[in-house]
Amino acid sequence: xxxxxxxxxxxxxxxxxxxxxxxxxxxxxxxxxxxxxxxxxxxxxxxxxxxxxxxxxxxxxxxxxxxxxxxxxxxxxxxxxxxxxxxxxxxxxxxxxxxxxxxxxxxxxxxxxxxxxxxxxxxxxxxxxxxxxxxxxxxxxxxxxxxxxxxxxxxxxxxxxxxxxxxxxxxxxxxxxxxxxxxxxxxxxxxxxxxxxxxxxxxxxxxxxxxxxxxxxxxxxxxxxxxxxxxxxxxxxxxxxxxxxxxxxxxxxxxxxxxxxxxxxxxxxxxxxxxxxxxxxxxxxxxxxxxxxxxxxxxxxxxxxxxxxxxxxxxxxxxxxxxxxxxxxxxxxxxxxxxxxxxxxxxxxxxxxxxxxxxxxxxxxxxxxxxxxxxxxxxxxxxxxxxxxxxxxxxxxxxxxxxxxxxxxxxxxxxxxxxxxxxxxxxxxxxxxxxxxxxxxxxxxxxxxxxxxxxxxxxxxxxxxxxxxxxxxxxxxxxxxxxxxxxxxxxxxxxxxxxxxxxxxxxxxxxxxxxxxxxxxxxxxxxxxxxxxxxxxxxxxxxxxxxxxxxxxxxxxxxxxxxxxxxxxxxxxxxxxxxxxxxxxxxxxxxxxxxxxxxxxxxxxxxxxxxxxxxxxxxxxxxxxxxxxxxxxxxxxxxxxxxxxxxxxxxxxxxxxxxxxxxxxxxxxxxxxxxxxxxxxxxxxxxxxxxxxxxxxxxxxxxxxxxxxxxxxxxxxxxxxxxxxxxxxxxxxxxxxxxxxxxxxxxxxxxxxxxxxxxxxxxxxxxxxxxxxxxxxxxxxxxxxxxxxxxxxxxxxxxxxxxxxxxxxxxxxxx
Length: 815
Prior knowledge:
Layout: H1 9-27, E1 32-34, E2 49-51, H2 52-69, H3 100-127, H4 131-153, H5 160-192, H6 215-234, H7 237-261, H8 269-286, H9 294-298, H10 307-327, H11 330-337, H12 356-361, H13 383-395, H14 402-425, H15 456-470, H16 473-485, H17 506-513, H18 519-531, H19 536-548, H20 556-567, H21 580-600, H22 630-640, H23 651-668, H24 682-693, H25 696-711, H26 713-719, H27 726-735, H28 739-744, E3 745-746, E4 749-750, H29 753-756, H30 763-766, H31 775-782, H32 790-793, H33 798-814
Antiparallel strand pairs: 1-2, 3-4
């Protein structure tokens, strides 16, 4: 779309709106652009994409802000990156002249104009039931709302006008979310959930010869799955969750009323049973998308959850009661009623326990051999069930849930972390992929600026980083260390002859990354010293002296893990100064000096070959071809590090440094609960997650692990015993995304399992489930069975007629 970039803002906005409307009329769509994945969601709920017009307007607003305040707002990129040349415009590139009053006036008028334009597009979308256009207007309104929030939060003077406009955009976003929900619900109720043949419950003819369930349930499942994917890709994540939750709740209302009122004929009763079983299995797979953790998924502390989530659980529980009482065999019913009404398990109610329907709806997780008793908190589950539930919620979220990811990786003695390390260290059969180095999309964030090679090296390094930041001595000694040392050649990097080697194991590289920020001052100090005449002997003394000042800046877990490696070193490995910690520090400093040499002089190439140690003399002049430039000095000092303990010249200083760090460790190291903290309160997990997200290495590690866990969900489910066989996991991975597979399968299981015989309910177990049902509700459900209709009573076999008669008299008398 061609637009003028110079001139008055209002003139440009008028042209922008005109061109955007012309594009819509011509193509019946909105021109959109993707936003950086690193900013999608978050506290402000950024959209995955926005209209071209909104993005262009935000760019113009930023130019106006910079011209008015001579600094960036911080919305698009760090203020330090913005310079006045960015807003040069007009004749000869002269910087715009503006002031805060002009800025506020321009923003107010232009935002009102674009708001009116978005209202027009919204009405067009609603008139034509065009979801893509409606999603586009939502993305535009959300982006502009967030930009205005940033301006208001900058605490500039006279922001009342902007606050009014911001409120208008917030109200519009909420209204658009309501319209989107209403549109989806109308499409579902009017077109998806209506089928005369499926809903003809009194028909004496079996539906589809009793070979399948209702069409409408499969169409509903397919629509819900497709809509979920579409919402996750187009609408701000929190809004998408609210819309999807509303869709699920509204359709469950229809299903609960429908299946609660019908009295099927004898030949349609099997369809009734199959439909409800299919429906509950579908809800079990859709519910994690609107939950924040496993407690919400299984219905623990239901009174503390949101009203909408409570409604979904209550309606699902009601459908479950229909299934148990209206479709179970009569002889199974009679067995439980022989004990008397007062002794019925169905009438008992366990408060603050797992809601019964979810056990039925997630058969892969809650298998029949896994007896669920007295579950009042997630900690009461066995390890595999607890991890599988949180993993399921994590994989269904529309945006990264970093705290839940950290919990999944570290819970139950770091079981998932151990699985990842075992498989990656042994080169197991897990799926790998390459991530984008940088997306270069609008609002590209810091999390996208790091080159992420999604391979074994990065995964092991990321797990190591997690252990170093939040682990304790037990985690490092009992979980992390055994997995590392059981593999061959783990200790080679600790040999004194390997300092120069840049081909290091990933766990060793992760250790170096955690001390990398402390090294530049040391490198700069030693280079400056040599430039002013210090000898190499003096340079090495300076290095050791700097190390002695380092410990307040270093994570004590690094010292602890080095001590543990020291205790397990093979006899043929000798680190410099006989210290793993010193070997690590010198290796890290060697790499830092190497980088300085390569940056200062791109022509200097250091080959990965063993250095000639005999060249390391007391003066810099002994190195042929080097001069007094910083790049040459950096490379020379780096090579000198390889022989820092030769001839016992620095032995006493090395001993003193190591003694100091030992004292620091003993004095300052406080053991915590380590990774177990991730299973405590949500607030604790959030704090730990914030600590990881506070630096680039932590962000990078969590992003790599999130992509890895999501990409290998079937593999982890197999390891946890959720999938029966590897071939089933492979099959699901290949076909899960295929349309036909989604239509005929509820995740791992096919539709209509009751008819196909792949699944046979344990009615005795189901009928002894505590559900808090009163005798009135039990009779209300039984009376809707076809056997209890007066016209059918005399056609029943004698034994079934006796059962119906006994149950009728028993329950009617009780009521």
